[in-house]
Amino acid sequence: MKKTILTSMIALFAAQAAADSYLDFPVTLKDYEGDKESSVSYTGQSARHVLHDSLKAAVGQVSFGDEAANLELMNRYFSETGTDRAVLSPVSSAGFEVTPDVVSAISGGKNLADKAYKGAVPAWPGYLNGEQVLADMIARAARTEGGFDPVTGHDYQQLISKFAMGAVFYNQAVDNYLDELLAEDVKPNDQAYSDGAAYTGKEHVWDEAFGYFGAPADVLNMSAQDVYDIAKKNADIAERADVNGNGSVDLHGEMAYAHAYYAAGFDKGGKTNYLHTIAQAFYDGRDVIRKAKGDTLSKRERNKLYDYADVIAANWELVLAEAAFKYAGSTYSDIEKLNIILEADGNAAEAYRTYAKHWGELKGFAMALQVGGRDLGETAFELNSLIGFSPVLPGDSQVVGIDADGEMVQRKTKTLAEYQADMVRVQALLAANFDLQAKSNDVTASMTELLEQLNSGGSVEND
Amino acid sequence: MGPFSLSEWVGEFTDPRKRLFWGYLASAVFLAWLWSLRHPTLPRLWQRDVWFSASARADLKLFIINKVLFFWLRPNLLTQSAVALGVYLFLIGQVNSAGVLASSVPPLGRALLFTLVLFVIDDFSRFWVHLLMHRVSFLWAFHRVHHSAEVLNPMTVLRTHPVEGVLFTFRSVLVQGTVVACALWLFGNDLQLQTIMGANVFVFVFHAFGSNLRHSPVPIWYPAWLERWLLSPAQHQLHHSRLPEHYDKNMGVVLACWDRCFGTWHVSDRSPIPVGVNDQLPDEHQLGRLLLHPFERIVSAIRRRIHQRGKFKKFSEKGLQHEL
């Protein structure tokens, strides 16, 4: 109840305009002698967002037959920490200038691998942890053209991207910074986070979580459509995105990434308010820390932070569940289209590619949903059973595991029609276990609507 | 929102999907008035005992009990969406042809066909369940509560024993869930129900033209040829008759064809009919009696049979209600 009220209040305040930029929280650290005015710093997270976007672009650039070079290219953005890494994405486009063009100009020495989830990931074959799953996907992508394996139906560009967002950003934020690192004896607020830093322990912990969400710092003064357009590098929003007026959109502080983009994508439909609910909770939590004026946080203040953290985690989880729901619907439609083409003996290559792409997004988000530190139990098991290790192919085969050499093993499991029905089950499972509101691509939307029309609340009318 | 909130109760009379919607009641009153002008000697709707007798008060008591009981019970019963989803998953898992007829039937045709089929199947299922309520002895024990009404008024439609209410809920859920799932499988997602004020257009017409007078003392009859197709209020009043020659007649709701197929059709008797059951109890309309008597009848019938024959008799024998 308490959290519901808090969420409602956050949503209410989120609707109000003219909040300060997240970057404007002042220095509160006592005895700070530097010249910085802002205590906000999350350049490391912005760098990782750029690494993620660039890794996704790199996977799309691999060419068949050049495995070593492919691996080197992808690992540059996954596991390496070199200073000469060019930004592959986001890069400037017509009417939308971005800066900088090298990752180290945002923050040096960062990678994705070190921060990837270290727990087991049963949704992928081979009993691997999150980091190993991403490395495994990269290794397999290196043997493909453009990251797509037509033999298994794996679109590694989507799988790597969607799972990395969960295994790094979501996991780090909700299972680390907004969880263990909020504890009383960890990163205290009356001490600098590190020697010479302009921010306290708790300030930086909170800011790093905000950074992983991927929203522009001025998010509270922007609409969901604005944030969505920024992530899409729409030229019409470039001037609005350039909050500091330096003539380009800064990849730290002004760009939109990852789950903030997906939250905005759902919110612009008008049924949800995930982006601003999460952003406002981050902002309000940060304000609690500011008001402590560099003193140790009291129990009451930390409890407030935990409440805001719960709002953030719950809504972030919903964004992932909404995304999985949406792509289960896309996959359902793709199978239908694929079947029509196959039955007519047409060329199904393009339809198959789209099916694999949407399946990759579904699988990636479904895997991401499971690495937030909350045990989803039976829901996770059922989700993984229904989706499987790969899409069901037109020959009714599917990846069921790996052999001793680490190669994917395929077997006949179920028909495409049965798998299509499983996509409906995935949506039903997600809808039953998460309070979804957007429900994009809802396969049974008509069913719900018709039953709602017929349902008169029930009566015991007799004859 | 709870079982005691005003909107929950008011909703019973403001939802055009329900038979007691005020508009339907108003049209029934209007039709009854018109009928009284033409047939001034026949019983009228506004008689004191029709609305205030012990029988009428019992209707109200059961309405209140069911309303509260089903508020909690219904979410725990089988739901339409569970049935619809189950049937839909079964169908698309068997033959991947969701929406296979979508392109061959225009949207309006699809909507009309779906609405009509839903109405017809719903009407048949009501008939069939009603038939079972009369022919299966232990079901009759519960349905007898409805027939124990000694005067009929529109509220009598809700004079239902809770056990019977559960059965009706299952019927509704199974029929609507199955038909919706099949229709979506055949026609795809772009499917509409044809409605007037939110109610199925056929149901709306049925209610707008005096369905509430089925439970009333006003014997509105149709021309004989029409009564062969649509059951008139007078034909349903005959269904409530105490007279043996009327037992188990006119089980249908809207369409008369089901009764004709099953040999239970009877043309209306254009005169006042005594309604109720012949084994009426002195305290028939007390709430405790209404709720518990069906169980007493079943237990005593079982005891009687065990005692008499040493074994259970088949429960589906025609006309057993009159033995029970």
What does this structure look like?
The complex is a heterodimer of chains A (463) and B (324). Chain A has a domain of 131 residues. The two termini of chain A are 44 Å apart. The mean pLDDT of chain A is 93. Helices cover 51% and strands 5% of the residues of chain A. Chain A has 15 helices and eight strands. The longest helix of chain A has 45 residues. In chain A, β4 and β5 form a beta hairpin. Chain B is mostly helical and 324 residues long. Chain B has one domain. Chain B is 56% helix and 1% strand. Chain B has 13 helices and two strands, in the order ααααααααββααααα. In chain B, strands 1-2 form a two-stranded antiparallel ribbon. In chain B, 41% of the residues are buried. Chains A and B meet through α11, α14 and α15 of A and α5, α6 and α8 of B. Chain B: Pfam families: FA_hydroxylase. Chain B: InterPro entries: Fatty_acid_hydroxylase (IPR006694), Sterol_Desaturase_Related (IPR050307). Chain B: This is Fatty acid hydroxylase domain-containing protein.
Kindly list the characteristics that best describe this protein.
heterodimer, A: 463 residues, mainly alpha, two-stranded parallel ribbon, two-stranded antiparallel sheet, 15 helices, 5% strand, B: 324 residues, 13 helices, 1% strand, Sterol_Desaturase_Related (chain B), oxidoreductase activity (chain B), Fatty acid hydroxylase domain-containing protein (chain B), transmembrane helix (chain B), Fatty_acid_hydroxylase (chain B)
Give me the Rg of chain B, rounded.
Answer: 21 Å
The two chains with the largest interface, and their residue counts, are:
A-B, 31 and 58 residues
Principal-axis shape of chain A: globular
Order of helices and strands of chain A: HHHEEEHEEHHHHEHHHHHEEHH
Helix content of chain A: 40-55%
Biggest β-sheet of chain B, characterized? 2 strands, antiparallel
Total beta-strand segments of chain A: 8
* Average pLDDT for all residues of chain A: 93
- Biggest sheet of chain B, strands in spatial order? 1-2
Largest sheet of chain A: 2 strands, parallel
